Amino acid sequence: MGRAQTFDTHRAVRAALGVFWRSGYEAASVPALEEATGLNRSSIYHAFGSKRGLFDAAVQTYLDDVVRPRLRELLADPVDPDAVVRYFTGLRAALGATGEIQADSGCLLVNASGAPIARDAAVRQVVADYRAELRAALGRGVDARFPDRDAAERARLADLCAALVVSAFALVRVDPASATGALDGALELLGAAER
């Protein structure tokens, strides 16, 4: 009979998420994961099967606890016409908050897409699904903001907005001003730039 689990799985996954988010999958060492989670190697492997299993759990937590709450207002029914503007102003504030993990580390999934782990088909699919979820949510926001515009124009605007979000996430670690500038560009496209 195996030993009963004596730790909080969600807390351990959230702690591991911080390590993966800051360091990336490849650079996240098992000793660093042990230190962050308070678990020893055997407990990590027993609970998650492998470092990769822990990473997969961290990615799901990232989607559920970080990404989807920010998109929630864009998924309401109906979507408020200013929801997409609030999304971008909130994201801009998060990426401009020096010392906070989003400002210092960008997006876990955008970072993973440029790392060796992205060679894995399952990781590529998660990143593609995330981008599609982001684009769909932004599309709903653009549709609500500009209901009288042509559908093709709204689709192009949503595509541009999604590309600017991904650009901001990719840039924030190395050029924070350009990252926030990308989001300012989106706000300008949405007719909400500060004057």
TrEMBL record:
GO molecular function per UniProt: DNA binding
The protein's name: HTH-type transcriptional repressor ComR
Top-level taxon in the UniProt lineage: Bacteria
Lineage: Bacteria, Bacillati, Actinomycetota, Actinomycetes, Micrococcales
DNA-binding region: 29-48
Record-linked SUPFAM superfamilies: Homeodomain-like
Keywords attached to this entry: DNA-binding, Transcription, Transcription regulation
All copies of domain HTH tetR-type, residue ranges: 6-66
Source species: Isoptericola dokdonensis DS-3
One Pfam entry name: TetR_N
Listed PROSITE patterns: HTH_TETR_2
